[in-house]
Amino acid sequence: MAFLLEIVTPEKRIFSDEVEGVVIPGSEGELGVLEGHAPLVTNLQPGELRYSKGGEEETLVIGKGAVEVTRGKVSILTDLAVTSDEIDEAAVEEALKRAEDALAEKMSDEEIATVEASIQKSLAQLTFKRKRRKQI
Length: 136
What we know:
Blueprint (H helix, E strand, L loop, with lengths): L2 E6 L4 E7 L1 E6 L2 E6 L5 E5 L2 E7 L2 E7 L2 E6 L2 E6 L2 E2 L6 H15 L5 H27 L1
Parallel strand pairs: 1-9
Antiparallel strand pairs: 1-2, 3-4, 3-6, 5-8, 6-7, 7-10, 8-9
């Protein structure tokens, strides 16, 4: 009982393989998908994505984007998809500080939205990295 999971960023295809299930951070909370799930399209929020393959659970952090569930396939288009090992905690903390400092400056609504999105991605990465470190 498996379906195809594809995770794609603007830079490359991150993952494409058969999985038994996936849990996605959606705009309304976590979304669990198993084979035979009803078709849908929804927005992603930065957070932890988990999928099971061969009885093992794998995790990565994703950014904003969209997910499409169709018969036999889940397609995830996101601006970020990395594993815990790929996250440089110090660099993410510095990016978060720069983004928070930028909010103190006068900006347009569009610039504020961009900075807030950056903050969400940074916080998602830090939470993910620190959670993984505690589990080891």
